[in-house]
What we know:
Elements: H1 2-19, H2 25-32, H3 41-61, H4 82-98, H5 102-108, H6 114-135
Helix pairs in contact: 1-5, 2-4, 5-6
Amino acid sequence: MRYVATLLCGLLFGIGLTVSDMINPSRVLGFLDLFGTWDPSAAFVFAGALPVSALAYWLSRQRSRPVFDEGYHLPEGNRIDRRLIGGAVIFGIGWGIAGFCPGPALVATISGQTGVFLFLGAMFLGMAIHRMTLRA
């Protein structure tokens, strides 16, 4: 049942990204272009997500464990360090160049855009390089 719930949540998230047009890199790049032709529509998507996330977070705090799992899987680290800041900067640069971040890029594969496959290839290459450097 856990996998069915995971699949349904992923499908709902993907539908939300598609309906809000967050799989369109020009929409995201327009939002990031503060001094050009700024497109504020993504801000409304983010603002709409906040109450939903807040409610889900509040509900999770009321339970001792999730419905379909033995426990919560929360990040253990709470330090802001060089690796966290470096990763955020690399993520932001990639988002600003491509107009994609991982979730919307996976959903955008249905569009068949060449750019999304180039982005995903670069993302997986970066993940592989990160994994190799951690072992070294």
